[in-house]
Design goal:
Helix content is about 5%, strand content about 45%. A four-stranded antiparallel beta sheet has the order 4-5-6-10, with no helix packed on it. The protein is mainly beta. The protein is globular and about 35 Å long.
Length: about 120
């Protein structure tokens, strides 16, 4: 950052490279191993999947018929939609039934007991 007179300039790299993580929930609210749970996040709902202790954040809406993924279950390492059984890889968002179809997956981190997601 540089100041010239009363103008302060921030390097473009600092603006472009700064992730925008927002608080989603607390660590104590995360789902137990091999379960999924949904969380409100602004105008979205995010599905948090816990596969063998590894957390992933993804869109909560199944691309098949709009089912709530966070109300589904984990089976074979995949998030299974409770409506019609479509399965999604929680790391990539790819649908098992059609790998070219993907739900959005979001970076997730836990800091000081807070769960942060980058939307």
């Amino acid at each position: 950052m540089k100041t010239y007179g009363w103008h302060t300039f921030i390097p473009v790299q600092s603006i472009l490279m700064t992730p925008n993580f927002i608080k989603l929930t607390t660590e104590s609210e995360l789902p137990p191993a091999d379960e999924a749970k949904e969380f409100p996040c602004g105008d979205k709902t995010i599905c948090i999947a816990n596969v063998n202790g590894a957390y992933s954040a993804m869109d909560n809406v199944c691309l098949h018929r709009g089912g709530p993924l966070g109300q589904g279950m984990i089976e074979g390492g995949k998030v299974v939609c409770p409506w019609h059984g479509w399965q999604y890889d929680p790391k990539t968002g790819a649908a098992e039934q059609n790998p070219s179809v993907k739900v959005a997956v979001y970076p997730l981190k836990i800091e000081n007991g807070e769960v942060l997601v980058e939307i």
